[in-house]
Each structure stands twice: as C-alpha cells, then as structure tokens.
Amino acid sequence: MAMRENSLLRTPDFWHKENSKRCYEKAKEFLPGGVTANIKHFPPYPITMKRGEGAYIVDVDDNRYIDLLMGYGALALGHGHQKIKEAIEEQFQIDGTHLFGTPHEKEVSFAKRLQEHMPSLEKIRYTNSGTEATLLAVRLAYAYTGKKKIAKFEGHYHGGFEEVLYSITPTISEAGPGENPHPVPESSEIEAGTDEDTVILPFNQIEDCKNILRRYKDELAAVIVEPVQGGFIPASRSFMKQLREVTKELGIVLIFDEVKTGFRTGLQGAQGFYNIKPDLTALGKVIGGGFPFGVVGGKDEIMMESSPNKGKDLFDAQTAKQAANKSDVLFHSGTYNGHPMILAAGHATLDVLEHEYHDTEKRTNQFRKALEDMFSAYGYPMITVGTGTIFSVVLTEKERLINYRDFQKTNLQLRKQFDYCMLREGVYTKPLNRYSMATVHGDDVIESILQSTERVLQRGGLSPIRDKE
C-alpha cells in the first residue's frame, strides 16, 4: 500500500532561527564543521542554546523548549538542579580549591557509594569521560588476559577509539550476514589491520554469538556490550544470562558499557536489571551530575592491573629503573581523575536519585503508555522501546525490536520529520535520538509534551507505515 502524502515527509519550512544560523556560520570560521563534536550537528544547522533551567532550555533566538535530550541522558536531575549547585558551592567553600592533584576523601566515599549500588565494582578507577572509561576497561582486559582481540556488538557505541569504531551504524549491504557480521569502519584513518583485532557479534542472537566466541576464544581478551543497545533496545534476559555463562566458560572478560544505562536502568544499572555480574563496568554521564566524568570498576584481580604498586610511576625515573619490564605495567593516570568538584556533584546526584528515581521511572512508563495510546488512536503504528528512564519512539508495525538491523528497518525518515515538527512545537531532542527523562519532567511537563504530540499527529497523516524488507 502506498503511503499517503503528508506534511511530515516534506522538508520543514519553519526553520528560521536567524541567530542560531548566525552562530553556526561564525563557528565555522573557528571550528571544523562549526561544531566541537560531530554528534552536535544536524541539518540545516544545529540550534545554539544559551540557557537551561529545570526541564527547559532556551536558544539564542529566545525560543523555549522542553528538553528531552538532557545532555544525551547525562542530566538525570535536569538543568541547574539546586542540590548540585549547593554541593559545588559547599565543596569549593570547605576545600578552598576546586583541584588538589592529590588523593582526597571524596574519592573513597564516592567509590563506596557506587559499590553499594553495584557490588560488581570491587575496585574502582575514575576517568574524565565515558570514552575514557571504556578505553581503560579494554586495556585492563588486554593486560589481564594477555590477548589482543576484542568482540563488540553490531550497532553498539563505546566511544571514539579505534578498536570500537566499527559497525556502529553500518549499512545493511556493508554489514554482511546477520549471523556473522563484518567489521565496518566508522571513521577515516583507522590504523590498517585494526579490523582483524575487532570481532563483530550479532546482538540478541546467542547461538550465533556462541559460535563466533568459540571460534576466537584463544584470541579474545574481552566482549564489550551495551546491555541495552543505544540505551533503548534491551537484551533479553536469556541472552544476557547465556552471554555471561559462555564468556566465563571461555575465559573472556565481560565488559558492561553502562555509560548510558548506569542509574537510568534502575539504581543498580542494567547489571541489576538482569541480575548479571560483569567482570568490568564502564560508567559515565549521569553519575557525575552531567559533568565530564567516567568510572571503571570490576573484579579486584583485573582492576589491580592498574595499581602503581605493581610496577612503576611513568614519571618517576628511580621507580622506572626498578621496574623489571615496563611492558608488564598498565599505566593509567590523569590530573582530573576523581575531580573533587565533580565527585561532590556526583554525591548530590545520588542523594536525589535515591529518593526520586522510582517516581521518575513510574512517570516515564506512564508517558510511554500515553504516547502509544495517542499514536494508536490516530491510527499510527508505533512502539516505545526502552527500560528505566530512557526510551525511544519507533515508527514501526513490529511489536518489538531485538537489534540494530531491526531498528534500521523501521521508518527512520518519518521519525526524523516527526522530531523536526516537535521542535516547532517547542519539544527538543536531536532528531532520531532517544528520550531521556529527568526528575524535573513532572506531570505538567509531560502533559505539555503530549499536547504538542497530538497537534503534530493531527497535522501529519503518518499512516499507513510499512517497514523495510
């Protein structure tokens, strides 16, 4: 059946944000492509923001939006939460500085608090981003096992370093057979031969995964996985259970990348949701109150690969002389690791989430149900996909998605146009992104979003929708 002509499929004619356009043109004089991160760009030009407060952000043209992006999920308490402001001010006032460059007590108190929520974090190292966290986790697995290949899943993103910059958004024609995906590079200038060290696995297809893992068992240091792909497509419980069993059987380190799911798929993260104890976990975003922050935690014997007591301080010549073989030592350092101001913000974030997370998750589920009912009432095939306080609106006739290839067969173009129309209504997310709910998304805010959604659906004529074959 042919799809009816509708306004959402036409290029939006409302994109007149003169100050954002001016900012973008000026930015291109100084910044490659006018942005400091490729993810911030979308056509015809990204919206430049100047202020955020609670559930709202305001752009340089003075347009006000309800924010559903929330820093790609980092802002679990919304913008400028008073508790975080107070924690930062108190830290500065009491400590007298924002940076020691030495050990300090919050490094221990925050680690203890994380461990209470995620017991798998037997030892912890701090980093400055989720990418740094996943990179350190992979290096720890290399050091611990002595092996130099890793396996990642098709459609999963783990940051911007070479071993994991494969098969994140491959075309289906490039990606190879579904049961044995090919490694497809996602960036130029990836070192030749890296693809030989990165094995691609099919998500939620456990028998195919087992076949591949057994084939490479003597070479694989680790399997790294987003337990909830992209923050919204969950693994089945059976898949996660069997993945844990087979990696343990084969002596392969299992790394949970919980940068998106940590404190969003429950306070115990995805590992609590699945009742799985990974060998290593990478965290970020939420736990630093939205500041640059990351954590790697896991088994004592693996984490101790990074202990300075094992080898040497790279910058201490005397210790370096004493090291029998520097290649036996995993060096990890960073002036800002365990930044006291960020850990103060992290404590404040946990203070709030420990009291308000469950209510936020309850409102999220009610919001999802209201959206599904509304789309259905207007005859539009749609499902919401996700867990905890993050989910995505997926325009499809399917009842569920299991992996990246399923998602690519949904009507992504129509979802993108829907997002542009929601921007016109004053509801912000980067087109095609998941929705990240915050504690400040109260009933009144959700009602406003639903009213905007209904106005878009009344105008749009979205159905019938046909998935791609």
UniProtKB/TrEMBL annotation:
<dbReference type="GO" id="GO:0008483">
    <property type="term" value="F:transaminase activity"/>
</dbReference>
<keyword id="KW-0413">Isomerase</keyword>
<comment type="similarity">
    <text>Belongs to the class-III pyridoxal-phosphate-dependent aminotransferase family.</text>
</comment>
<dbReference type="Pfam" id="PF00202">
    <property type="entry name" value="Aminotran_3"/>
</dbReference>
<protein>
    <submittedName>
        <fullName>Glutamate-1-semialdehyde 2,1-aminomutase</fullName>
        <ecNumber>5.4.3.8</ecNumber>
    </submittedName>
</protein>
<dbReference type="InterPro" id="IPR005814">
    <property type="entry name" value="Aminotrans_3"/>
</dbReference>
<dbReference type="GO" id="GO:0030170">
    <property type="term" value="F:pyridoxal phosphate binding"/>
</dbReference>
<dbReference type="InterPro" id="IPR015422">
    <property type="entry name" value="PyrdxlP-dep_Trfase_small"/>
</dbReference>
<dbReference type="InterPro" id="IPR015424">
    <property type="entry name" value="PyrdxlP-dep_Trfase"/>
</dbReference>
<keyword id="KW-0663">Pyridoxal phosphate</keyword>
<dbReference type="InterPro" id="IPR049704">
    <property type="entry name" value="Aminotrans_3_PPA_site"/>
</dbReference>
<dbReference type="InterPro" id="IPR015421">
    <property type="entry name" value="PyrdxlP-dep_Trfase_major"/>
</dbReference>
<dbReference type="GO" id="GO:0042286">
    <property type="term" value="F:glutamate-1-semialdehyde 2,1-aminomutase activity"/>
</dbReference>
